[in-house]
Amino acid sequence: xxxxxxxxxxxxxxxxxxxxxxxxxxxxxxxxxxxxxxxxxxxxxxxxxxxxxxxxxxxxxxxxxxxxxxxxxxxxxxxxxxxxxxxxxxxxxxxxxxxxxxxxxxxxxxxxxxxxxxxxxxxxxxxxxxxxxxxxxxxxxxxxxxxxxxxxxxxxxxxxxxxxxxxxxxxxxxxxxxxxxxxxxxxxxxxxxxxxxxxxxxxxxxx
Length: 207
What we know:
By secondary structure, the protein is an alpha+beta fold. The chain contains six helices and six strands; from the N terminus they run βββαααβαββαα. It has helices at 30-44, 49-65, 79-104, 124-135, 162-183, 186-192; strands at 5-7, 18-21, 26-29, 113-118, 140-146, 151-156. The strands form two sheets. A three-stranded antiparallel sheet has the order 1-2-3. Strands 4-6-5 form a three-stranded antiparallel sheet, with helices on one face. The longest helix has 26 residues, at 79-104.
């Protein structure tokens, strides 16, 4: 007997957190249904079981009546990877904040620089997620993301020593790896397990 509802873990062709309803290719996206239910509850301005249940039924009916094309955004949720990324971000924010504060009160000025850091993943989602993660850490900010070459250009406050520039690059690569392990596909996770791409030092870098 054919199943009426087939979840995504039984059909790899379906987007994550979704299920196929019936045999006509109608896909119910769970995050979309949850979002429509939330909008329904907000419209009624009352959180109760009746409104939530009605919202779910209305959301399912809308998704079945007006099916959307199957679109895989390339987003996966890995709980352990998300915890690792959050922990690293909190630790890096603290240590970077202390380092920036120390630089403010030193006697001699530091030289800033803009450096290019090539990434291993080329998907738009992972490029944007990595850039956001890097920009949240004090001491460096992304000034440009070059999609064609999967390269981020990072403004670094401390560029006095080549070792500081190498440390900044490795910090970006570490954040890229953690971001991909939290939200990436299996192919992207395998890609970040490889060594970082080689660095091409341009003349005048660090100026």
